[in-house]
Write a structure and sequence with these properties.
This protein is mostly helical. The chain has two domains: 106 residues, no CATH class; 61 residues, no CATH class. The protein starts with 9 loop residues before the first helix and ends in a 5-residue tail after the last helix.
């Protein structure tokens, strides 16, 4: 299923706060998936849920008690930075996302949100091309957490989150295609500069040296088109 792209339905789109990409398995692995799925369906009547509805209600009841104020200034800066990079985060969505930050804190046995809870925002991209840019911005914010904050952080805030070279290459293709068009507004050029800077920072962590070199060469070429690295 695809969410509506009509701007008039943006309020409906904002109800889905997070995005998770779920691709099909490789062709050679499909038989194993079919077998595992069949077995899972057969065992389903005997399976016990990992968490009950009452547990979820109890966790939800704690959310209003979580202190948001300690990180609100940092949160505002992060939202502004995401918007400046071309990621659309409506005021309505920014308000609702605070509940997810609070949920992360509660799962870590805290009643106060800290910087590490920003990891949740890695999943607020709207289209696949935004994933690496969003991850770069959010990871930079999480990296500023103090040691005492990291001691009680959610495991996903400490994930390795290795950049995907194919996603980075696709993002660079998108920037190159936009720059090849005539009369790109200066405001958008500024946005493309920010995105390229974020992608460049992610590219240096590409796991394969050949892929890393390729990405860095493309980044260098795009900087030249933009008049040089800032």
């Amino acid at each position: 299923n695809r969410l509506p792209e009509d701007d008039a339905l943006r309020a409906l789109f904002d109800r889905f706060l997070l995005r998770v990409n779920c691709e099909n398995v490789a062709a050679e692995e499909l038989p194993f998936v079919l077998e595992a799925g069949w077995r899972l369906d057969l065992l389903r009547p005997d399976r016990q849920p990992a968490i009950s509805v009452d547990d979820i209600r109890a966790i939800s009841a704690l959310l209003p008690k979580v202190a948001v104020a300690p990180i609100r200034g940092d949160y505002v800066q992060l939202i502004h930075r995401l918007r400046h990079a071309g990621i659309e985060v409506s005021d309505r969505r920014a308000v609702k996302l605070q509940r997810l930050l609070a949920a992360s804190a509660v799962l870590c046995r805290r009643l106060s949100i800290n910087t590490t809870d920003f990891w949740v925002l890695r999943y607020i991209w709207d289209v696949a091309e935004q994933r690496e840019v969003v991850a770069a911005i959010v990871n930079d914010a999480v990296s500023k957490a103090r040691e005492e904050e990291r001691a009680t952080s959610h495991p996903r805030s400490r994930g390795d989150d290795v950049p995907n070279p194919e996603h980075l290459a696709r993002d660079l293709d998108r920037i190159a295609a936009r720059l090849s068009e005539p009369s790109v507004p200066e405001s958008e050029v500024s946005c493309l500069r920010d995105q390229l800077g974020l992608i460049a920072a992610r590219a240096q962590w590409a796991p394969n040296e050949q892929q890393r070199t390729f990405l860095e060469e493309r980044v260098s070429s795009l900087w030249q088109q933009l008049g040089g690295r800032p």
